Amino acid sequence: MIKMKKPELLAPAGNLEKLKFAVLYGADAVYLGGKNFSLRAFAGNFEIDEIQEGVKFAHEHNVKVYVTINIFPHNADLIGLDSYLKDLYDVGVDAIICADPGVIMIAKETVPKLEIHLSTQANNVNWASAKFWLDQGINRIVAARELSLNEIKEIKDKTGAQMECFVHGAMCISYSGRCLLSNYMVGRDANLGECAQACRWNYNLVEEKRPGVYYPVFEDEKGTYVFNSQDLCLIDQLDKLIEAGIDSFKIEGRMKSISYVATILRSYRKAIDSFFEKNKYKVEDKWKEELDKISHRPYTTGFYFKDLNNASSSIESSNYIRPYEFLGVVLDYNENEKMVTIEQRNKFEIGDKIEFFGPTWDDFTQTIEIMYDDKGNQIQAAPHPNQIVKIPVKQKLAPYYIMRKEI
Questions:
Q1: What's the farthest any 2 CA atoms get from each other in the chain?
Q2: Where's the Peptidase family U32 C-terminal domain (predicted)?
Q3: When comparing pLDDT for 318 and 131, which is higher?
Q4: What is the mean pLDDT of residues 297-317?
Q5: C-alpha–C-alpha distance, residues 168 and 180, integer Å
Q6: Distance, CA of 20 to CA of 386 (rounded, Å)
Q7: CB-hemisphere CA count at 13 Å for 30?
Q8: Of 151, 159, 230, 403, which has the most beta carbons under 10 Å away?
């Protein structure tokens, strides 16, 4: 057994359903946002009673809950912050994630016993800055995404700070996410949680004195999209992060589907546990194959290893890779009838070859030969969102298993 601290696996929870899936698929902690003060305004987000329910569910499974309060607030945005902080403390959240010094000050005054993590939005890129924040009572530093692993390790070595780092998910072309493109183009402020992801649109250059004349920059027949960031994936390098003493491995994706979060979590869970169980690190092909099944952009290791041949922007395409489609979630299984009840999320029909997967890796595939609606009528297809469908299956399933198909 390796005598190192096992890092926390931290998962996004865009709503209560995603929180439950994250907990059951292997997260040690989840992070979520309330209806206000969060940088993901278009995620489902949580009312305070939902946060309370989420905390109860998570704590029953020994999973921690962190709440983001990471906007850069204007004066009007501070109204109600103190009472919201008290509500979070009262329902038992384990920490808040903040970037703005004013928010941090109010939190220290209002709920002094509540742990505070410094958001990546605070752009902490050196040990002196980390030491400053630790002196202000910050409990954990979320590293800026622009740091190399050596730089992160130096910060930890010189300050002793708890360090949290992103290991998987969307990258941002702006400095740790502080972007004005969305606000400038469509009036949606990324720093107040309303990012339109304008950096992922396709662009051409226009010279000031030649309006209407476009200058495409081609690398090949598909062209180059200079703003087009790739997705981070560090599953091959987790041992290096563990050996560097990183305390928490963070997955990006509060706006993503439950299928996305579940798929990533179970691969990273296996990878982390394997390192500590086997005293060595070897990534199995099936763990990586799973990461290729979710909707993603080409993968990169970002800035961690300063590899100039591993750019964080894609010069080939602005398109997502979507090899599999998320079809539905398992609600129930009837042992006598060998029948599973599915809540539909995308259309499926007779003849589709489907795959079921769950936290325990007992995946299997089969073809839909017959299916029924919730009234017991035979149907040919399930085209309606959240439609309840029953399908005979060849293997026992449990609630929270996921159904998908290859496109």
A1: 75
A2: 323-404
A3: 131
A4: 64
A5: 24
A6: 18
A7: 34
A8: 403
CB count within 10 Å of CB 307 equals 12
Contact residues for 374 (Cβ-Cβ < 8 A; gap 6+): 388, 389, 390
Instruction: Supply the DSSP string of 260-293, one letter for each residue.
Output: HHHHHHHHHHHHHHHHHHHSS----HHHHHHHHH
Rounded CA-CA distance 228/217 in Å is 13
Query: In this structure, what token pair is assigned to residue 220?
Result: 């090949």
Number of domains the chain is built from: 2
Residues 241 and 374 in one domain: no
Which residue in 261, 265, 230, 262 sits closest to 249, CA to CA?
265
Both structure tokens of 45: 């987000």
CATH number at residue 340: 2.40.30.10
Please give the span between the terminal C-alpha atoms of the chain, in angstroms, as a whole number.
41
Q: Are residues 112 and 170 in the same domain?
A: yes
Q: Rounded to 10 degrees, what is the CA torsion of 316, 145, 164, 169?
A: -20
Distance CA 21, CA 40 (A): 19
Residue located via tokens 């309370």: 52
- 394 plus 251 within the same structural domain: no
Asked whether residue 365 is domain-assigned, the answer is yes
The per-residue pLDDT for range 144-185, each reduced to its tens digit, is 888 999 999 999 999 999 999 999 998 766 656 666 666 667
Residue whose token pair is 């990012």? 195
CA atoms of 14 and 33, how far apart (whole Å)? 7
Pairing status of strand 339-344 against strand 402-406: unpaired
Q: Rounded CA gap, 85 and 53, in Å?
A: 17
Task: Tell me the two tokens of residue 29.
Answer: 């902690």
Is 156 found in the same domain as 14? yes
pLDDT at position 307, please? 54
Read off the tokens for 151: 């730089």
State the Cα–Cα distance between residues 261 and 259, nearest whole angstrom. 6
Task: Write out the residue range of the structural domain in which residue 369 sits.
Answer: 324-406
Who contacts 210 (Cβ-Cβ below 8 Å, separation ≥6)? none
Q: Which pLDDT belongs to residue 17?
A: 95
